């Protein structure tokens, strides 16, 4: 069975953790733009150097560069039968880039998992993560900036996917297992069995 999924939610919603769980349950790769970028920065690749200078300036990686990276990743053999996108598309321009790519392969997204978490909960989780993991990019100011960008740029993509009838809003508050169970139930209702 194939499944082409997107998981969306504000920073701190748990989408990275839930995405990995869903990907493993379905046997599909999780394509996280953040992970791809961090790996390139760590390895000192040409892309990594470009990305590092952009991120160090506090900016987001441009749409064209992000889309090229995702297209390259989705063209890998392990993504032929499905994938779960995390962190892409993050705005309306990237939705168009993804649509063009998938249409060229006669494919489309099967479902969009939208984790709904109140802003205060996201802030609390991110502050705790910064303390636990010592993540330099999780300063209070950086967190507020990223949440603002999500609300302005990423949340509107849910309206586009909503008109296609593929958005499942999932309550992202609760234990890890409770949220995972809600996601699996929504996917089951679409005929995508994650168990």
From TrEMBL:
Catalysed transformations (reactions): AMP + ATP = 2 ADP
Cleaved signal peptide residues: none
Chief site of localization: cytoplasm
Binding site for AMP: 33, 38, 59-61, 87-90, 94, 135, 146
Pathway: Purine metabolism; AMP biosynthesis via salvage pathway; AMP from ADP: step 1/1
GO molecular function terms attached to this record: AMP kinase activity
Binding positions (ATP): 12-17, 129, 174
Pfam families associated with the record: ADK (PF00406)
Top-rank lineage group of the source organism: Bacteria
Entry EC no(s): 2.7.4.3
PROSITE patterns per the UniProt record, alphabetical: ADENYLATE_KINASE
Keyword Cytoplasm: yes
UniProt domain comment: Consists of three domains, a large central CORE domain and two small peripheral domains, NMPbind and LID, which undergo movements during catalysis. The LID domain closes over the site of phosphoryl transfer upon ATP binding. Assembling and dissambling the active center during each catalytic cycle provides an effective means to prevent ATP hydrolysis.
Matching NCBIfam families: PRK00279.1-3 (NF001381), PRK14527.1 (NF011100), PRK14532.1 (NF011105)
General function of this protein: Catalyzes the reversible transfer of the terminal phosphate group between ATP and AMP. Plays an important role in cellular energy homeostasis and in adenine nucleotide metabolism.
HAMAP family: Adenylate_kinase_Adk
Protein name as catalogued: Adenylate kinase
Organism from which the protein derives: Microbacterium phycohabitans
Lineage summary: Bacteria, Bacillati, Actinomycetota, Actinomycetes, Micrococcales
């Amino acid at each position: 069975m194939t499944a082409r999924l997107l998981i969306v939610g504000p920073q701190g919603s748990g989408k990275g953790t839930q995405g990995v769980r869903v990907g493993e349950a379905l046997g599909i790769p999780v394509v996280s733009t953040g992970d791809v970028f961090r790996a390139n920065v760590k390895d000192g690749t040409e892309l990594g150097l470009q990305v590092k200078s952009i991120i160090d300036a506090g900016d987001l990686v441009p749409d064209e560069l992000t889309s090229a990276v995702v297209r390259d990743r989705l063209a890998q053999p392990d993504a032929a039968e499905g994938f779960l996108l995390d962190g892409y598309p993050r705005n309306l321009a990237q939705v168009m880039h993804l649509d063009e790519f998938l249409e060229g392969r006669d494919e489309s997204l099967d479902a969009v998992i939208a984790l709904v978490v109140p802003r205060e909960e996201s802030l609390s989780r991110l502050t705790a993560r910064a303390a636990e993991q010592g993540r330099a990019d999780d300063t209070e100011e950086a967190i507020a900036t990223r949440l603002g960008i999500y609300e302005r740029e990423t949340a509107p993509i849910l309206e586009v996917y909503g008109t296609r009838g593929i958005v499942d809003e999932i309550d992202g508050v609760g234990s890890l297992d409770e949220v995972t169970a809600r996601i699996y139930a929504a996917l089951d209702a679409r005929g995508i069995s994650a168990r």
